[in-house]
Amino acid sequence: MNRITVYERANFEGLSREFTCDVPDLHELDFGNCIASLKVVGQPWIAYTSPKYEGEPYAFEEGEYPSVERPNSFSALRLVHHDLGDPQITLYERPNFQGACKVVTEETNLAYGYFNDRVASHVVQRGVWLLYQHPGRGGWHCLAWPGERLADYKPELNFQSRLSHLRPLQPGRPL
Asked: What keywords are assigned to this protein (predicted)?
């Protein structure tokens, strides 16, 4: 069973709620903007800073999080239903899937290679990916979903060819 248990204070203290399905607006359940720690069992969950899965996304894979990066700021929760095994994304040097390309199947720090700060578009074949602006999972980040074809980073992501690190979300352990 996939589930997320959220707590109003750090270290799993205070009021808590457990969810097994998507929650588009935590405010409707009197638990909006109050999550400070959480536990995930099974598949990853995405927490959003605005209702209806809008705002900044934060991914939480299976495990315990005694504190979260943005406490008291999550307004929606979404379970990742996609198959996360055998991930693959193709990165392109120029917009509209043009120029040199690179197929990535695992966490990669682009800072050490030709594609650092040179990616302008991508196609996600499989898995859900976290894309980071800076090496070492740093800076602004976004999610890339299976089947996504993002033709130009500049207007759509505001990355402006600044992708330096990416990693696929890891599946939860079978129960």
From this structure: Repeat
Tokens of 131: 């894309």
pLDDT digits (tens, 9 = 90+) for 55-72: 999 999 999 999 999 899
The region that residue 24 occupies, defined by phi over 0 for left and psi between -120 and 50 for alpha, beta otherwise, is: alpha
In angstroms, rounded to a whole number, what is the distance separating the alpha carbons of residues 15 and 12?
Answer: 9
Which strands make up the sheet holding 88-94, listed edge to edge? Answer: 98-104, 88-94, 121-126, 149-150
8-state DSSP, 23: B
Domain with 112 in it? 88-168
For 82, 103, 116, 117, 141, the CA distances from 135, given in Å and listed in that order, are 26, 18, 9, 10, 11
Whole-prediction pTM value?
0.91
- The answer to whether position 175 is within a domain reads no
Whether residues 100 and 75 share a domain: the answer is no
